[in-house]
Specification:
With about 350 residues, the protein is α/β, with parallel strands linked by helices. The protein contains 13 helices and nine strands. The N and C termini lie far apart (about 45 Å).
Amino acid sequence: MANKKLLVAGARGIVGRSTINHFRKLKGWDVVGLSRSASDFDSDIQWINVDLQNSEDCRNKLQSLNDVSHICYSAVFEKENLTSGWAQSDHAEINLNMLRNLIESLDKNSPKLQHITLMQGTKAYGGHLGPFKMPARETDPRSMGPNFYYDQMDWLSEFQKTKQWNWTILRPQLVFGVAARSPLNIIAAIGTYASISRELGIPLRFPGGVERIGEATDARLIAKAVEWVGHNKIAANQIYNITNGDVYIWHHIWPRVAELFGMEHGVPQPMSLVKLMPENAQLWGRITKKYSLKNFSLSELVPSWRFADYMFGYGQRPNPHHMSNIKIRKHGFSACIDTEEMVLELLREMQNLKILPE
């Protein structure tokens, strides 16, 4: 019996990387990674460099893929100003076209296509605009656009109506995982901020706002959910919130991060990492040489300190975002992960990969 084949779009991102690592360990699966950049995986998985914004590039480079059975779509276009770009119409248009270019190409060439998993998040509930009704449920009304999540969902659900395959949308909270060059990688931001603070001989101080309760989603949990929705009929054409299953407060995690890096934990000191951290680029270069780390510049590891400021709540009033997990649990997916332990595990993994110093 032929293996199933999963295609992962956005393969070098946090979700894409974890999904590839999960599926390549499963029996009966082949994996294809899609990205604009070259593969940095140690394995020999099939890899295709393609620009999803270019429809012709998609058609030419994907025409040989005639046996794809599943797709995990986690690719995203982000603007340099990141958070302010989320509410701009051209941001939504570009992201819709990327999805359309890929799906139209594969739908035409892969008659075995069974399922598409599309990644969303709390922007589906207007989390980027301000507070929303809590806990957010999958049936909640939409917020004001533009919002590429809505555009992608509307197009995909309409396009699928005459097809044999189905789709599932996953809506995680803040996603944690291991990846370089991702503007949404909070673990890399925490690790580099801690490493630079230690090198400067100063305590690890939380740089964000006042205490607030948050939720997180481990990318490894998302990968398990991608497997689950791909072969359970109950998940066909459904939307699911997915989180670790607990809550966290940054101020409670910070002492454990300080302990991991062998440094003193200081009192919180609100500061803009957007303004401060780029000034430490040369120091980071010296750190990589001192500890024989992989040669990532600070801007490559953390392309957007603006995202870190946003997630740590710098200059913001508390704006908790909580989502209900009841639907996915009732439908049969019950996996969970301890968030505080997850943060430490992922930091250790980045240390083991020689991305962060021990």
